Amino acid sequence: MERLDENTMPNKSMNELLVEIGSWFMGTPYVEKTLELPGAERLVVNLIGLDCTTYLETVLALARVAKQGNLGMVSYEKELERIRYRDGILGEYPSRLHYFTDWIYQNEQKGLVKDITQSIGGQPYENKPTFMSSKPKLYAQLSRLDYVEALAKAEQAIGSRSYFYIPKSDIHRYESQIKSGDMIAITTTIPNLDVVHVGFALEKGGRIHLMHASLNSREVEISEKPLQDYLMGNKSQSGIMVCRAVDLD
């Protein structure tokens, strides 16, 4: 938090802040399941070990407090809770936004982000995730039937909405409309999942790359390959959704 400058940070755009703050975490270790802790759901604050989603949420929360000039851990934790949970309220385990397409929808409803995928040329994305409710044994917290039922209800809501994506073979056609700092969600051909990876767009040498917490390299990095080439190397990654942080007045 000491790196946030209350005098200069509010003058930068949200995208500029996301790029700058995101870069501070270069080399931070990739750590899985930092939110999947035993006991009651609680707000996990971890700046030293991140997966792709917690990296994105951490950077977005820090950027929002920097933009507002409300520097301090209390403000950061409030923003993180607002981003991470349904309706911005920490409740029980199902209140967390476990599916990233639900995360996009919810945070657009909160006025924090804008899903720009359709407007830049995206096409309809078939999105009927059922992974969590169909595989409860993979999650210790889903030993409770009421939690499984709540997740199934959330999955049904996701499946009732319209989503769009840009197929990976078409990304080069729309790169000029993607800005550094835009949030990238990677879609999948796996039928019961919605999104398999997330990160931030970063323009480098005239191409869009991905700034992300990488499972392969086990740390936060900028992809060596442009985003399209990065996806083309993975058969189960089908394309991208693009979200843009809403600038605060």
UniProtKB/TrEMBL annotation:
Gene3D superfamilies: Putative xylanase like domain, putative xylanase like domain. InterPro entries: AmiA-like, Papain-like_cys_pep_sf. SUPFAM superfamilies: Cysteine proteinases. It holds the Pfam family AmiA-like. This is DUF1460 domain-containing protein.
